[in-house]
Write a structure and sequence with these properties.
The structure is a homodimer of 347-residue chains. Chain A has 347 residues and is mostly helical. Chain A is built from 15 helices and two strands. The longest helix of chain A is centred in the first third of the chain and has 13 residues. The first copy, chain A, is globular, with a radius of gyration of 21 Å.
Chain lengths: 347, 347
């Protein structure tokens, strides 16, 4: 038995001492689920990062604005499209000037609940924004000043920054861009039928979804995919029982977190992704090599747990995962009209 | 006096026979405006192109979906962004694989009222979609089949096509993609304060905007910018009184419609663009060379009418043009959740 399966089995056993049939009981299953998972919060603000209306609205506008990247033709929404639930549908993203991103674009929905990026090389959603500005792939700008110069050419932005950061003498700064976009992202939570279930409404999940939830727990998926995000909070080796690239057919061998930490134990280690909205965010894994969720579930069982799931088991688990899909948040699903103005033409 | 100014002067004279001061009169100005312009229709459907709910919704979804272009990373919204009022904010657009578009992306708002494209080389918004699929710049696909193959990989599309085209044995066709996207586009009208004014509400325009309207008429802008779109319906030489590229400093000399028709008279001829939402769609002209609307107005007066506008005149006209900005239509400003699924990874 793998270590992950052993952990999962221990969790299950703690609830199943009275009767072996207990897991089939809907009330017990709900109690188990309430121990393992957590409902989404109202937002992901912190005392230090207040989600004022002006700050969130500025962040939302910046998120949709393509005029700050090197060729002024890509915005945050290019790789994090609302229509695709905050992803881009690609295996690995295509950045500015057709430069390839090395990994699959994670959704920004609920993202402030997770370790940031597949390898955890960003400290927070705000840190991600700051580093994106000068990433050769993401913004492609040589420095933060180049971004600020573009902003300054669009007269409508100054009052928006002033309103969002009223106490700052100079409001239009790279740090404030990051705080504003971070504030916007921290509002993007997607309550789902599973949250209604966790609140006590058993029928919010269909009987099949509840069977899937039980299998999700008993198979051992919950050893990593737990908590409010159903994942997102820990690092794990991808490919415990066998190499992931053999199981998926991927032609990309990614060393993962070792390239960040230089610690040999971090070879092939990635963050465990949150499974919220997973049904809407194909393709799967850090390399996006698997297109169908059903296949992704079977790959995970195989490489992480050493199990071969039946098609029926995988189908039930997928039905449970479907219940993690929430509505697109209104702030993300409606488009702000940007302050008008052209930045210098790119020739 | 240039021919355009002569036409404009004739129109004005027809209303101004009673008293030279009559143009200052608000009621007379409204009557003039009602003769020269027209309120937007409810939509831009035709008997042959019905705007059924299913067809419009399918078109809207397709419009936002990036998975059909060659690298699956650009959708119609890339160059026609809702946040930028259906344009991309660039002088000239950047297509798939960083390939340059030769001209400025026109807004799709109200676009079915206008000649399609700067050179009129598309017959309709539907014809534009069909040709975009195999344009090396726009979709970059080798043929329509490649687009349809992508569509077929996303299971959620078949029922949407069936609902949109219930009488077609094979609903998922390139023609129907074009009809659906066209249907969506034909809903995108943007009623503005100017429409309320044309309906008889004089105070829908500020006094300055009304002065600007009067100057717009009397200067001769209305010789070309007339009708429901305040332009969009005729071809004109750009650069009547002098070469436009000299007046704008543009380094692009575009021969215009002559490259389409091969008729020598079409040298430097372009469609007259609609001025609806013009304040939101910088930069200006077919080459996007001019960033500010105030400058664009002065360039037009100079090269088309041989006039040097004062700053005050240009400002007043810009204030009038501001009144042509409507609300972003709800169907364009809210984002549909796309049918989930990944197309083959692009490596």
């Amino acid at each position: 038995m793998s270590r992950l399966r052993w952990i999962a089995a221990s969790v299950v056993a703690a609830f199943a001492t009275a009767s072996p049939a207990a897991a089939a009981d809907d009330t017990l299953l709900l109690k188990q689920a309430q121990q393992l998972f957590k409902m989404l919060p109202k937002d992901m603000g912190t005392p230090d990062l207040p989600l004022t209306t002006a700050r969130v609205e500025l962040g939302r506008i910046l998120f949709f604005d393509p005029r700050f990247t090197i060729d002024a033709n890509m915005s945050c929404t290019t790789c994090h499209q609302p229509a695709l639930y905050g992803t881009d549908g690609l295996a690995t993203s295509i950045g500015v000037q057709q430069r390839p991103h090395p990994r699959n674009a994670p959704t920004i929905l609920n993202s402030a609940l997770s370790i940031t990026h597949w390898r955890g090389d960003r400290d927070s959603v705000e840190d991600q924004v700051i580093k994106a500005m000068t990433s050769p792939i993401t913004f492609g700008q040589p420095n933060e000043k180049a971004v600020l110069d573009r902003l300054a050419r669009i007269p409508g932005y100054a009052p928006l920054f002033k309103a969002a950061f009223p106490d700052d003498a100079a409001a239009m700064t790279a740090q404030n861009i990051a705080k504003a976009i971070g504030a916007f992202e921290r509002t993007l939570v997607t309550p789902s039928p599973f949250d209604a279930y966790l609140a006590g409404n058993i029928s919010a999940l269909s009987p099949t979804a509840r069977v899937g939830l039980e299998k999700f727990i008993n198979t051992g998926c919950i050893a990593c995919h737990e908590g409010v995000g159903v994942g997102g909070t820990m690092y794990r080796k991808f490919g415990v029982m066998e190499d992931y690239w053999k199981a998926t057919g991927s032609q990309i061998i990614d060393k993962g977190r070792v390239d960040v930490t230089k610690a040999p134990d971090d070879l092939y280690v990635f963050r465990v992704p949150s499974l919220r909205n997973v049904a809407m965010t194909a393709p799967y894994f850090h390399d996006g090599w698997v297109a169908a969720l059903h296949d992704a579930v079977r790959v995970m069982a195989r490489v992480q747990l050493g199990l071969t799931l039946t098609d029926a088991d995988a189908r039930d688990i997928v039905t449970f995962l479907d219940s993690l899909t929430g509505e697109l948040p209104a702030k993300f699903g409606t488009i702000p009209a940007l302050p008008p103005g052209a930045v210098p033409p790119v020739k």
